[in-house]
Amino acid sequence: MGRRIDRGLTTSDTDDGWMVRVDGVPYTGEIVDTEDGRVVGVTGYQDGLEHGPSVEYFPDGSKEFEGQYAMGTAVGEWRTWYPGGRLKEFTLLDRRGDVRKVQEWDPQGNLTRDTDHAGAHGDEL
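Request: output the structure for the sequence above.
Response:
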């Protein structure tokens, strides 16, 4: 990505942040979210849309979740962790953002859910 800026330097076309701009131009690069001086998240953008890796952190700096975007759509493997680093959830999304697999674990590490989905469009991953 190369370029990295603080989210405070950006503007959005809509309330939900669909198109992110810097100085009126759709942004390409990484946007860093901070809280009290610490990094709480980093998300890649291309032409103003979420694109590339996205990660958020717990206050201790460990990952809370991570995943991938393709031109504004969540795709691929997404993971969420409990504080302390134990895996909480794994979700697999196809190229259209349809959920294909979900696995969840309780705080002790026991698998509590393991489901596969055909996807709304029936496409291959």
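The chain has a mean pLDDT of 91.
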